[in-house]
Design goal:
The complex is a heterodimer of chains A (132) and B (253).
Chain A lengths: L5 H25 L3 H11 L6 H8 L3 H13 L3 E6 L2 E9 L1 H14 L3 H14 L6
Helix pairs in contact in A: 2-3, 2-5, 3-4
Chain B lengths: L1 E2 L3 H10 L4 E5 L19 H11 L4 E4 L4 H7 L6 E3 L14 H19 L7 E4 L4 E4 L6 H12 L6 E5 L3 E6 L5 H12 L3 E6 L5 H4 L6 E6 L9 E3 L5 H15 L1
Parallel strand pairs in B: 1-11, 2-3, 2-9, 3-4, 9-10, 10-11
Antiparallel strand pairs in B: 5-6, 6-8, 7-8
Helix pairs in contact in B: 2-8, 4-5
Classes of the chains: A mainly alpha (132), B alpha/beta (253).
């Protein structure tokens, strides 16, 4: 039975820590976490998306996204409305406040650029093209 | 279908201003009021000024059933895209197809002969080069005019797509591009991530119902069964809509 290559898992853990640090830095410096920033930027370009469409764009399952969306809605950064074609369905859109939050974040992101750039290079090595 | 001027509709409209969006408009019945004589259709001065203001801020497209030559003369505003003949003319990278022109000429001859058998001075056949429009707005006996036109169009069913509009029948080639495909092509060409489209007619359903397009769709006039997401009540509300769009884009800029 082959042994799991432990060093790889240590590296993966270190990467997870680095990502968490970047997210914490973003939350402190930019006012929103890495996950929130990712959801908001995707939604900015997908106005009136359903939760399923947004989840696919972000690369997570709809159930994973649910809590994040609730937090963003509480902050009034996103708007959840009824699909005008089918009132049983919900559609999402960025609000003016959400756009302001993204703009403020954009002004501060530069300082974390080097760290994000290194992590992005790692992502390029491990993610298939379609997932980037 | 919801009112575009409802709080939800306005928020969705505003959300479009946050991304790279294309703003597309039908012409007759949308930017310009419907006229008894289609040759008289013009944008109101105020509409034209508001559209000009918008075109300076965002890419705009006019997608019409009119021929491109006809449409160009009616849109003095510099639009990023002018698409005529229901998508057959003006698409980036596309050229008029001579085979389509000769097919259209054949239809014109056949329809003219059929209509001449029981002439109605209120029926007018418009040749748009790549498609035809048969108007009956000026007919005094609209029901009978409609039946007469449909009878004349009957033999063309296999090679032509008959699109019923507001007191007009449009005859376009089967399998040819339509407004929905035209908007998709223009979106791809412009790099727009989303689009806005407003139209009033049956042919605009090709945009409203186009699957996979990220388009906020609006119909002029509420109509059961329409695929559009939102509606404005009447053509005269176009100025209010353009004012809203200009407002969002001045905030965003």
């Amino acid at each position: 039975m082959s042994q799991a290559p432990e060093p790889y898992f240590h590296d993966a853990f270190k990467l997870a820590i680095e990502i968490e640090r970047l997210s914490q830095w973003m939350e402190t410096s930019c006012g929103l976490s890495l996950a929130q920033w990712s959801v908001l930027t995707r939604l900015r370009d997908l106005p009136a998306a359903t939760a399923q469409e947004l989840a696919a764009a972000v690369g997570v399952s709809p159930s994973t996204l649910t809590q994040a969306l609730k937090r963003l809605e509480r902050k009034k950064w996103i708007f959840v409305g009824k699909d005008p074609r089918d009132s049983r369905k919900k559609v999402l859109a960025l609000t003016r406040e959400g756009m302001k939050a993204l703009r403020r974040a954009g002004e501060s992101l530069g300082a974390g650029g080097e760290r994000a750039s290194r992590l992005s290079a790692c992502a390029g090595l491990i993610l298939p093209d379609g997932k980037r | 279908m919801k009112s575009l001027f409802s709080p939800e509709g306005i928020r969705m409209l505003e959300a479009l201003s946050f991304t790279d969006a294309l703003f597309a408009f039908d012409f007759d019945g949308t930017l310009a009021p419907i006229c008894d004589d289609p040759g008289e259709a013009r944008m109101a001065e105020r509409t034209e000024a508001l559209l000009r203001e918008l075109s300076a801020r965002v890419p705009i497209a006019i997608v019409s059933g009119r021929s491109l030559a006809d449409l160009s003369g009616r849109v003095p505003v510099r639009a990023s895209y002018l698409i005529g003949n229901h998508g057959l003319e003006g698409l980036p990278g596309a050229t008029a197809i001579s085979e389509l022109k000769s097919r259209c000429a054949g239809w014109k001859a056949a329809i003219s002969i059929a209509l001449a058998q029981e002439p109605d001075p209120g029926i007018r056949l418009e040749d748009k080069g790549l498609s035809l429009a048969i108007h009956y707005r000026a007919s005094r006996r609209k029901k009978s005019a409609r039946a007469r036109i449909l009878k004349a169009l009957g033999p063309l069913e296999e090679e032509a797509r008959i699109l019923a509009g507001k007191q007009v029948f449009n005859v376009v080639p089967v399998g040819g591009p339509h407004k929905g495909m035209a908007l998709a092509r223009v979106m791809a060409h412009s790099g727009a991530k989303a689009a806005f489209f407003i139209g009033d007619d049956h042919t605009d359903e090709d945009v409203f119902g186009m699957p996979g397009l990220r388009v906020l769709s609006v119909r002029v006039g509420r109509k059961a069964g329409s695929q559009a997401q939102y509606y404005i009540r009447q053509q005269s509300e176009i100025d209010l809509l353009l004012r809203e769009l200009n407002g969002f884009h001045s905030i965003g800029s």
